[in-house]
Amino acid sequence: MLSFIIRRLLLLPVTLLGLTFLIFLFMSALSPYALLSTYVNNPRQLQAPGAAQNLIKQYGLDKPFYVKYVSYLNQIIHGNLGWSQTMNETVVQVIKTRFPATLELALYSIIPIVIVGIWLGVVAAVHHNGLIDQILRVVALIGYSVPAFVLGLLLLFIFYGVLRWLPPGRLGLGFEMIYNSPAFHHYTGLVTIDALLNGRFWMFLDALKHLIDPVLTLSFLSWAGLLRITRSSMLEALGQDYVRTARAKGLSERVVINKHARRNALIPATTVAGLMFIGILGGVVITETIFNYPGIGSAMAQASEQLDYATVLGLSLLFGLITVVGNLVVDVAYALIDPRVRLG
C-alpha cells in the first residue's frame, strides 16, 4: 500500500507541471498587455507613465514562450496570481474569500448525495424490474435530463418567488452585516460552523436556510448518477457466487444484502461519489450563479462576463489543482477499499 501511495505522489508534481503548461499555452494567445493583469498584484503599479511597458520587460512578456513560461511558474511559486478587476482585490484573496463558501456547499451537498443516492440504488437493485425499480429508473432518467439551470430556477421560483421561504445568497442582510463586522470571529470561513463557534444559533439557522435550494439542486442531479452506478454494481454483486453461498447457508435476505452484497457494490459508488465531490469543489458555476451564492463558481462566471483574464486563469489553475489532488485522494481511497487495485 505504501508503494502505491508513493507512486501516485511521485506522479503528482509531473501532473501539476503539465497542468500549468496547458494553462499557460492558452494564455500565450493573449497579448502582453492582457497577460500583464496576471502578474501585477495592484492596479496602481500601472498608473505611472510607461509602467506597463516596463513591467512587460520586467516579466519577460515580450520574450520567447519558454522565457514567459518560466516567469509564470515563478509567479505561481511566489503566490502571485495577479489582480482581479472584477472583485477589486488580488486573485489569491478572491480564492481565500470565495473557496470556503464553495467548500461549505460541497460538504452539505455530498452527505445527502451519498446517503440517498446509494440507498436508492440498493433499493432499485433489490426490487429488480419491480414497480419500485421502474419508478426509480424514471427518476434517474429525469435527473439526467433536467439541466441544472432549469431545476435551480424552478426551486428558486417556488420556494422564494412564491412561498418566500428560501432566499438566495449565503446569509440574510442583517446577519451578513454581523458576519462582516469586526466583532465576528472567522475561524474557518464556513458560515454555519463560525456562527456556532460565535454562539449565534439564529445565524446558523439562517445560513442553513440559504443552503437548502442549492443543495437540493446539486443533490437531485447527482442522485441520478449515483443511483444508476449503485444499482448496476449491486445487481452484479447479487449474482456472484458468494451471495448464492450465503443464501444457501440459510442467512436472512437482509444479512445477505447488507453484509455481503452491498459492501462490495459500494466500491465503484464510493469512487463516483468522490469525483462528484471534486466536481462541486471545482466550482458549480450555474448553481452558484442562479442562487447568488458567493463561491468560486459565481466568481468565475462574473470574471468571464467581464473578460477578467487574471481571475479566470487563476481560478482555472485552482480548479485543475483540485481535480488533480482530488483524483489522487480518490485513487488512494479506492485502493484502501479494494486491495486488488494495489496490485495494478
What can you tell me about this protein's structure?
The chain is mainly alpha-helical. The chain has 2 domains: 2-84, no CATH class; 92-172 and 210-343, Orthogonal Bundle (MetI-like fold), CATH 1.10.3720. Helix content is 73%, strand content 1%. The chain has 15 helices and 2 strands. The chain has helices at 2-27, 32-35, 51-58, 65-77, 91-126, 131-145, 148-162, 173-179, 191-197, 201-238, 241-248, 253-281, 285-290, 296-305, 309-337, and strands at 83-84, 89-90. A two-stranded antiparallel ribbon has the order 1-2. Helix 5 (91-126) packs across helix 10 and helix 11 packs antiparallel against helix 12 (253-281). It starts with a helix and ends in a 7-residue tail after the last helix. The model has no long low-confidence stretch (mean pLDDT 86).
Quick structural gist:
This protein is mainly α and 344 residues long. It has helices at residues 2-27, 32-35, 51-58, 65-77, 91-126, 131-145, 148-162, 173-179, 191-197, 201-238, 241-248, 253-281, 285-290, 296-305, 309-337; strands at 83-84, 89-90.
Keyphrases for this structure?
344 residues; MetI-like fold; two-stranded antiparallel ribbon; 2 strands
Amount of beta strand = under 5%
The low-pLDDT segments are none
What is the CATH homologous superfamily assignment of the largest domain? MetI-like
Name the shape in a single word. Answer: globular
Report the helical percentage: over 70%
Write the layout of secondary structure elements.
Layout: H1 2-27, H2 32-35, H3 51-58, H4 65-77, E1 83-84, E2 89-90, H5 91-126, H6 131-145, H7 148-162, H8 173-179, H9 191-197, H10 201-238, H11 241-248, H12 253-281, H13 285-290, H14 296-305, H15 309-337
Antiparallel strand pairs: 1-2
